[in-house]
User: Which sequence fits this backbone?
């Protein structure tokens, strides 16, 4: 048992982390958005672990400083066989399970299940949206909604009307019924009253369910909406706003302020055929709480989720370290790498909690740094916890059986570090 380090393994573990990060980032963007987040995150960490494990195995084959030359001569076939289950499979399961837990509701947070669509039907819409693309966008959004989602629709001009009370849209027949309601909306020549629209939206919201509001208009309202905005903030409801062909700053500033003051996002749409993209972009942000990123359109991430992320990375680091030890069939390495994974995972989690901002480039950079730190700490932890080389346990037992009187030989062979 001794403390030592394989510098080549350290270098290759960093290369493996970088390669795993690059492939994982491509996977994050390539996998369908309809896939469950726990599957996507599980794949991400599985790929990372496989890449780190592969490069660490190659490093030990080139320079067997940790497992010894006897391992390279006798056990490399076993290590190759253990590579995939000890890295890809193990971390897919662990990462996916932790992401599933992270997606649950803790600390009073509510998963978004209700969506209120507030759609401008004032006279100016006949010019800015002559083809009724806003209604097509609403129907496209409803078509994508999962079975646990409900929708309500408010149409407004001088006054507001709840044309569709909150209803589940999980079944095709339910979606079709809402489409019929939307198709029946008649155009008006009236003005724009945000006060009435927001008041009607607040009436339909149920306090015990997570709700978001999508508010779409092409103009400005001089009505006083201070009271309504205070209610949205107090209820923790994000108000996402969409401005269509707004040619003056006053309308844009109002819609932007409405969104930002409630933790929502403002979308500026130049042409009405871009409304579907805006509606869909908003919808895709509501259920994507992730260990690897934060939602830029959501309210500030609750502290409890930062704690869960931190704990999750500790467990992911532990699983990665133990997996590498299993791959080498060396319990001493599993102990050393596992302890390093705990320390590295803790450090990586702190880096992510401090650095994640919702910006795609910045978040990617911090993920890269965090994964490099995790791999490096695991690789150097053999300097902290002493390890023993992998020896031929089977041959040792055979020799001991053949020479029972040689107590020293028996003692020496019993020191096998295999699992």
Assistant:
């Amino acid at each position: 048992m001794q403390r030592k380090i394989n510098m080549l393994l350290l270098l290759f573990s960093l290369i493996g982390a970088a390669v795993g990060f690059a492939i994982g980032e491509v996977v994050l963007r390539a996998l369908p958005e309809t896939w469950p987040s726990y599957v996507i995150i599980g794949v991400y960490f599985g790929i990372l672990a496989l890449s780190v494990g592969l490069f660490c195995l190659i490093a030990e084959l080139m320079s067997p400083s940790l497992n010894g030359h006897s391992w390279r001569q006798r056990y490399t076939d076993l290590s190759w066989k253990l590579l995939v289950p000890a890295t890809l499979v193990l971390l897919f399961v662990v990462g996916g399970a932790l992401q599933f837990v992270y997606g649950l509701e803790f600390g009073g947070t509510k998963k978004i299940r209700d969506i209120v669509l507030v759609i401008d039907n004032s006279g100016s819409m006949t010019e800015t949206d002559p083809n009724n693309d806003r209604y097509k966008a609403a129907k496209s959004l409803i078509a994508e909604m999962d079975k646990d989602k409900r929708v309500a629709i408010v149409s407004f001009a001088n006054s507001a009307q709840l044309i569709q009370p909150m209803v589940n849209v999980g079944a095709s027949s339910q979606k079709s019924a809402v489409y019929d309601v939307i198709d029946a909306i008649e155009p008006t020549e009236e003005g724009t009253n945000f006060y009435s629209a927001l008041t009607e939206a607040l009436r339909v919201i149920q306090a015990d369910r997570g709700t978001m509001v999508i508010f779409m208009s092409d103009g400005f309202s001089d009505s006083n909406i201070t009271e309504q905005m205070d209610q949205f903030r107090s209820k923790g409801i994000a108000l996402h706003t969409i401005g269509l062909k707004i040619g003056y700053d006053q309308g844009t500033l109002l819609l932007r302020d409405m969104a930002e003051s409630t933790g929502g996002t403002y979308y500026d749409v130049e042409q009405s055929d871009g409304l579907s993209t805006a509606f869909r972009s908003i919808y895709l942000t509501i259920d994507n709480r992730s260990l690897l990123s934060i939602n830029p359109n959501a309210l500030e991430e609750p502290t409890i989720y930062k704690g869960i992320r931190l704990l999750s990375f500790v467990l992911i680091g532990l699983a990665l370290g133990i997996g590498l030890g299993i791959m080498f069939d060396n319990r001493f390495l599993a102990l050393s790498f596992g302890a390093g994974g705990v320390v590295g995972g803790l450090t990586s989690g702190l880096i992510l909690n401090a650095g994640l901002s919702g910006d795609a480039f910045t978040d990617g950079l911090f993920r890269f740094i965090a994964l490099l730190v995790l791999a490096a700490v695991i690789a150097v932890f053999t300097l902290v916890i002493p390890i023993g080389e992998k020896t031929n346990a089977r041959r040792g037992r055979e020799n001991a059986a053949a020479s029972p009187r040689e107590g020293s030989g028996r003692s020496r062979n019993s020191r096998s570090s295999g699992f």
Remarks:
- Confidence is low (pLDDT under 50) at residues 392-403, 405-416.
- Residues 76-102 form the longest helix (27 residues).
- The chain has 16 helices and six strands.
- The first strand starts at residue 112 and ends at 120.
